[in-house]
Write a structure and sequence with these properties.
It is a single chain. This protein has 279 residues and is of the alpha/beta class. The protein is built from 11 helices and 7 strands. The protein has a single domain, classed as 3-Layer(aba) Sandwich (Rossmann fold). 45% of the residues lie in helices and 22% in strands. Strands 3-2-1-4-5-7-6 form a 7-stranded mixed sheet. The chain is globular, with a radius of gyration of 19 Å.
Length: 279
């Protein structure tokens, strides 16, 4: 797992710039997910809330508005490059009741029973030891405190992420990932999210599904977005010649036909589990 942790840190550090460049679009696309999570923890003025694996920070920033006055959001990530992205966005949005900390969710540097809520959007399932992270989350929550999370459903329900990888795999241009390890779809199976929460000691888990769409100007932008957000995809495609890239892009454009809108833009379906549980 140590090698995976090192690779994970490198992956997110090297894609932070891409996440920053696309942060505003990501915020709009994923607003139904963030809004569900924030509402689920029932933030109140004076509450202290932690966001783990915050990336650009948008989910936590929604909560920050609701816990003022008197409340503080701790926006955290385990790579400083992502925290820099979040800091810039907070400044642009004028959010003042937020502090930024580099935190590894598997070992949270925070006193026990010191927080009212924890948010983690699409983070736990890619961590080396998700159970350790959930147990740490439970430790830092006060009695009655809540955790809200998101974890992707199956790859076939998230073809915006799956199809570019599948096209490379079909052509032998990328190695198959380990299906048994951490990953984007590691918690996709029905019941997996609730099982993980209960195993960590949380009670009354409530799990729902949220559907939304990722919108691209064209199939080319879909390609470019995956390149910016996924280091694995970027590294695999960086080795390709122009002819192969053109062929893969053409295949993706054909795949995208069912999602093509009258104006030529794409609305690619996405689906995620969202969950809340209490201490």
């Amino acid at each position: 797992m140590e090698s995976y942790r090192a690779e994970n840190r490198d992956r997110w550090a090297r894609t932070a710039a891409g996440w920053g460049a696309r942060a505003e679009k990501l915020r709009r696309w994923t607003m139904p997910v963030s809004a569900w999570m924030v509402e689920a923890i029932e933030p109140q003025p004076g509450h202290d809330v932690l966001e783990l694996a915050a990336g650009p920070g948008d989910t936590g920033f929604l909560a920050a508005e609701l816990i003022a006055p008197g409340g503080t959001l701790t926006c955290s990530d385990f790579v400083p490059e992502m925290l820099t992205v979040a800091q810039r966005r907070a400044q642009a949005l004028g959010i003042a009741n937020v502090r930024f900390r580099q935190i590894d969710a598997e070992s949270i540097d925070q006193p026990a029973a010191s927080l009212d809520g924890v948010l983690c959007r699409w983070g736990y399932m890619v961590m080396a030891d998700s159970q350790a992270a959930l147990r740490e989350t439970r430790r830092v929550l006060r009695t009655g405190g809540r955790v809200a999370l998101a974890a992707w459903t199956a790859a076939d329900e998230n073809r915006w992420a799956a199809e570019p990888i599948r096209e490379l795999l079909r052509r032998g241009l990328m190695e198959e990932p380990d299906p048994s390890g951490p990953g984007q779809f590691a918690w996709a199976a029905g019941g997996a999210v609730a099982d993980q929460l209960e195993a960590a000691g949380f009670v009354d888990p409530r799990v729902e599904a949220v559907a939304f769409a990722l919108r691209y100007a064209s199939a080319r932008e879909w390609w470019e977005s995956q390149r910016d957000l996924s280091l694995r995809f970027a590294e695999a495609t960086a080795r390709l010649d122009e002819g192969t890239i053109a062929a893969v892009q053409a295949a993706l454009a054909e795949t995208a036909e069912p999602w093509t809108q009258p104006d030529g833009t794409l609305a690619v379906p996405a689906r995620t589990w969202v969950a809340v549980a209490s201490v």
